[in-house]
Amino acid sequence: MKDEMPEPVRAAVERARAAGFVYSCEPAVGRLLATLAAGVREGGRVLEIGTGAGVGLGWLVSGLLPRTDATVTTIERDPGRAGLGGDWPSFVDFRTGDALELLPGLGTYDLVFADAEAGKQMGLELTIAALNPRGVLVVDDMVPAPGTVWDAEFAGRQEAVRRTLLGHERLVAVDLPGHGSGIILATAQSA
């Protein structure tokens, strides 16, 4: 049945639950990631900034499978958390460290999912520079989770991200506040 979670997602959700990791990618955001990954060109490159327990990665992988001609690079600062193990396909490349230090040396990508403060609230220009022409950027967590209120400092940083993405000269972007955790989806026009 199409509404069920794909196996890479289900396995990552179980590992996240067992580890007590509560910041995983929401299903609405994940389905969008899988849909966009399915459209990545042959031999394309996908980047995730903020692996966490690997739920978002599971959605990206599920959108690419069964093909294995694309590569997925995923960056996680915490080596103990990077996907929490798991049996990932060989086309997934785990990088551990500071995204702001790693990004300049990684090249460019067709799809980027920015799911960490580094690469979103800090170093957003590095993330945008990592987009190929017509590359797609997904930034989530742009609205507070139900029942939560952001402090003024965090809300200000998120608003700066929003303004940058929606007003960037290289991007065509749309704010989708009602989708999952609130998404900004952007496409790069040129290098």
TrEMBL record:
Pfam families membership: Methyltransf_24 (PF13578)
InterPro entries reported for this sequence = SAM-dependent_MTases_sf
Q: What is this protein called?
A: SAM-dependent methyltransferase
Source organism (scientific name): Nonomuraea turkmeniaca
